[in-house]
Amino acid sequence: KNSNGKYTVSLIEGDGIGTEISKAVKDIYHAAKVPIDWEVVDVTPTLVNGKTTIPDSAIESINRNKVALKGPLATPIGKGHVSMNLTLRRTFNLFANVRPCKSVVGYKTPYENVDTLLIRENTEGEYSGIEHTVVPGVVQSIKLITREASERVIRYAYEYALSRGMKKVLVVHKASIMKVSDGLFLEVARELAKEYPSIDLSVELIDNTCLRMVQDPALYRDVVMVMPNLYGDILSDLASGLIGGLGLTPSGNMGDEVSIFEAVHGSAPDIAGKGLANPTALLLSSVMMLRHMGLNDNATNIEQAVFGTIASGPENRTKDLKGTATTSHFAEQIIKRLK
Ligand code: NAD
């Protein structure tokens, strides 16, 4: 807590729709009297010796506050900049990306009972950024899997299950083809299973998980799924699609010291600046953050106001949820429903 008796949290507003959805969060937090002071940090990358780095002031803020909320950051394709998202995850060693996805009562989709919890390895795999041209027309991209990174994310999954009274951990993989890399991931999961005898470990091929999840998402209730980086990226978007899209799904990037909470979606350049963005995903990320900080009453208050607003009808929902509301109208409606 700071000298105002509040918690200071770093806020990265983000690119594209980032400013619009961050404003909604700030307005709602102000109205809900959440005991948080935002420390807005600039993460515009600087190139130091040819390497993309985050400004020192941003690193210091996040290290000091331990908790950050982050809007989406755009990654220019093929411009030599490493993704800022990757840089942040590496800088703060945010090894586990927790992505819950739950049907929103009041917004009807073909499924009503989605409740998945996916943990994505966040530091290596296909995202190691080790790519090169062998000869013109032939490129190599290295999928790096280490025992160390696999162990810490899989252990996180077991501990997550234990702490929430969940009995099952499911490893999603493709070790039938990537025998050595995904094979190591599986091997570590099986070794760790011995330390968690009360948890039931199962494994499933990623293609099979995609098939079964769209046929019957209820199969994945009460299961903690854990998987290498790319599979987690793709499967979490699939899960998101089942409940109404990227405007709804939150996430937490968890490390030993620092955690950064952010929406699963990107900067949505196609709708940026038009007042069309749905701030729900960032808001629900902030709700995960509040629970992480032990501010459970504030979390519940905001969460219920968000869901209440979505359920109140299309005039109060944004366009991605077949509604007509602007970002600011949606935020005002949430504020009206706060306790
Ligand atoms: P995107 O997630 O930005 O957009 C995909 C689609 O979903 C678009 O049609 C967009 O309008 C819609 N959408 C996303 N969020 C929405 C919201 N809150 N409300 C309403 N509609 C929403 O994916 P993209 O277009 O592939 O990526 C754009 C940029 O974002 C790229 O530079 C990419 O690298 C970056 N990105 C960043 C993150 C992150 O910061 N964690 C994640 C993914 C992509």
From TrEMBL:
Keywords: Magnesium, Metal-binding, NAD, Oxidoreductase, Transit peptide. Pfam families: Iso_dh (PF00180). It catalyses: D-threo-isocitrate + NAD(+) = 2-oxoglutarate + CO2 + NADH. One of its GO terms (biological process) is tricarboxylic acid cycle. PROSITE patterns: IDH_IMDH. One of its GO terms (molecular function) is isocitrate dehydrogenase (NAD+) activity. Its EC number is 1.1.1.41. This is Isocitrate dehydrogenase [NAD] subunit 2, mitochondrial. It comes from Yarrowia lipolytica (strain CLIB 122 / E 150).
